[in-house]
Amino acid sequence: MSAMGRGASPERYTAVAILLHWLIALGILALIVIGLMMTQLQATIGPMETFKLFQLHKSIGITVLLLAVIRILWRFTHKPPVLPADMPAVERGAAHGLHWLLYILMLGLPLTGWAVVSSSPFNLPTVLYSLIPWPDLPVLPHLANKAAVSHVLAWVHAYGAWILIGLLIIHFAAVFRHHIIKRDGILLRMMPSRRR
Amino acid sequence: MMLRSLGFASALLIGGAVSAHAATWTIDAPKSHLGFTGSQSGTPFSGEFGKFSGTIVFDPANPTAGHADVTIAIASAKTGDQQKDGAMPGSDWFAADKFPTAEFKATSFKTTGQGAYEADGTLTIRGISKAVALPFTLTISGDRATAKGKVQLVRTDYGVGQGAWSSAQYVALDVTVTVDIVADKTAP
Predict the structure, then answer these.
(1) Which residues of B touch A131 (CB under 8 A)?
(2) Interface check A123 vs B, CB under 8 A
(3) Is the pLDDT of residue A4 over 60?
């Protein structure tokens, strides 16, 4: 710890950042799988299971929102490790741009999902994991044209999800390129540490 | 000996006359259950009303003269599922703020068999009143009466389930209400 000076960039992300990254990754993966199932496979899985998947999707979505808020606050207050010195400026820009787009979607998708639920004409209370009551966003539950608003928000949420899936594919491709092709060890900065 | 028998016979007669008189019974709510069973997407769920009260005037010898008045605190409906329990008092379902009570007013009883009766009356939920016949069995022991019965209702007859819930697409329209009432004789 004391080997590097104060304010110097560490070699790895902090343990908190690493934990948050992988928890959020797990959450997003679950949200994408559940989201696709509950919208594309309703006929196969049946109405009651679809209903349950929607409730689980809401629960995990709010969890990811809360984790993403902590992650971003942590990111602002803790320096991430520096990128390799020989990395071209274009790639640095692409890496930063992609990461900030991912942060924006990590907040934006749960928020639009929350808005879909808040404006839903079903007027169902949200109870996270069937245990924790969660409020609706303001204004939306009291709109006169809820159904139309909810429909548009659901459309935004769905297209946002497809954009996220696209960005994640680019994210995985970059990991593959760095780890398998360039073998620059950049992935290890985000892996749980082994005892040294 | 003769006198004693006569006295006994007259006591029986008087006793018979008293029991034939319509008594007033008061529901013992903590010992009673007022339940309901519905179905969401083919999966049954059930719940109970925790708060209700009522009195029944009933004479097994003359059921048609009987009557009953039961008031149910609609917001006391609980299924144990927070989401359903949060939704039920809302404007789509019971609209408990506008219609805090449901009421069953029986105006007559009729005998349908040995210890079996039917209460004919009006059920009011959400301010909508419909005629309802509630069949039940009755056992009386001393000053305690137990009535058990059930009746099937169509929730939309009473406007329970508005907007997206007004069809049977997600929640079945049929709801079974089960009655398990214990009442104490409070007036002879």
Answers:
(1) 82
(2) yes
(3) no
State the helix-helix crossing angle for A15-40 and A146-176, rounded to 10 degrees. 130
Interface membership of A165 toward B (CB under 8 Å): no
What CATH number corresponds to the domain at position B89?
Answer: 2.40.128.110
Pick from A38, A52, A56, A123 the residue to mutate for testing the B interface (most B CBs within 10 Å). A123
> Which range marks the domain in which residue B47 is found?
22-187
Residue type, B185: K
Residue B10 within a domain: no
Q: Enumerate the residues of chain A whose CB falls inside 8 A of the CB of residue B40.
A: 48, 51
Q: Does A135 touch chain B (CB under 8 A)?
A: no
CB contact, 8 Å: A42 with chain B?
no
Domain-wise residue ranges, chain A: 15-190
Is B15 domain-assigned? no
Tokens 């006793």 appear where? B15
B164: contact with A, CB 8 A cutoff: yes
Tally of domains within chain B:
1
Test A47 with B163 for CB contact under 8 angstroms. Answer: no
Which chain A residue is nearest to residue B86, measuring alpha carbons? A125
Residue of A nearest to B85 (CA): A125
**Range A15-190 has CATH code 3.40.190:** no
Mean pLDDT by 10 residues, chain B (188 residues): 48 44 93 98 97 95 95 98 97 98 97 96 98 97 96 98 96 98 92
